[in-house]
Amino acid sequence: MSGKEVTIAAEDGDFAAYQAGEGPAIVVIQEIFGVNDVMRELCDDLAEQGYLAVCPDLFWRLEPGVQLTDKTQAEWDKAFELMGKFNPDQGVEDIAAVIDYARRTGTGKVGAVGYCLGGLLAYLTACRTDCDATVGYYGVNIDKHLDEADRIEKPLMLHIAGQDEFVDTAAQEKMVEGLKDNPHVTLHRYPERDHAFARRGGAHYDARDAELANTRTRAFFQQNLG
Question: Which GO MF terms are attached to this record (predicted)?
Answer without folding.
Answer: hydrolase activity
